[in-house]
Amino acid sequence: MRRLLILGFVLISFSSSAQSWTPDSYTTFDETSFYKIESLHSAIDFDQINFPLLQAAIFFVTNEERKKAQLSPFNFRSEIERVATGHAQDMVKYGFYSHTSKIRIKRTVLDRFHLEGMNPEFYGENICSTYGLQYQSGRKVNPPHPSGEFTYAFTSKKEVILPHTYLSFARSVVKLWMDSPGHRQNILNPKFKTLGCGARLYREKTFYNMPYFMVVQNFGA
Hints:
By secondary structure, this protein is of the alpha+beta class. The chain contains eight helices and seven strands, in the order βααααβααβββααββ. The model is unreliable at 10-16 (pLDDT under 50).
């Protein structure tokens, strides 16, 4: 089960960079150097997730789509990332899935921008709820093993459902958005100039507690 919603209006090693990814890292890396970070290609450990790196992966993969459309890539803005991260965290904590927050002072997207000291002329939001595993949608799944390993049901041999890597997860989420006309419109909106992404983990109770992510993109100008 996947869900999508949209609202538009000095040298250091790549591996150590991933461990200490900060907002300043966005100015240090470009699309070429970013994809050389080894940790991007590692399976996500759901007990120890590098959320800044995961959010950066979504950011850079989104900019790939901008470049394909011959649009200027988004600039990163830490305040917008805080908006996105906060909304992802709130949806997990308070158990809702919507552009409208359950928290009164964060009710609308613009409310959330205002709390970070921003009042953009143009703004938008994409949200998504999707698997943390490389699961093929619609296939039957066995209850997980005590180790937490998920496998497909009704197969002649054991088929393990592997966790996403940081990069494969980012690509899967951006593909979901690009395959949805409204979300695609936000990503390719030339009026939007800045982007921040947020992601938080939860366990889907209706699906054997499979690891899922709430993912949020916020756009501004």
